[in-house]
Amino acid sequence: MDKEAGRGPHTEHEAEPTKVIDLTDALARSVCQAGRRRQMTPDPASMSKAELDDLAKELGIRGRSTITRSQLADAIRASAREAAS
Residues 47-83: pLDDT tens digits? Predict the structure, then answer.
């Protein structure tokens, strides 16, 4: 009957505001952060053997001490491709 009389619904308690997340902003921040991470990873071709060894260690690449700098760079690239897929 309230609706017919032009009155809104009656509630005993005021509704508490909720924390609404703007998904568009959240997605934009995520894309931006992913882009920064990608840009911060140096090209293995420009890294020294010691830098490649450190990065390979972080990535869990085995046999680092017995492979050449070129092979190490290839292994790091392959690891990056696997992580991206």
Answer: 899 999 998 998 899 998 899 999 999 998 888 888 7
Q: Where are the domains of the chain?
A: 23-84
Distance set, CA 73 to CA 27, 39, 64, 65, 68 (Å): 32, 17, 10, 13, 9
The DSSP result for the chain, as a single string, is -TTTTTPPPP-SSPPPP-----HHHHHHHHHHHHHHHHHHS--GGGS-HHHHHHHHHHHT-S-GGGS-HHHHHHHHHHHHHHHH-
Is the pTM of the predicted complex or chain greater than 0.70?
Answer: no
Buried/exposed 65-75: b ≥16 CB within 10 Å, e otherwise: eebebeebbeb
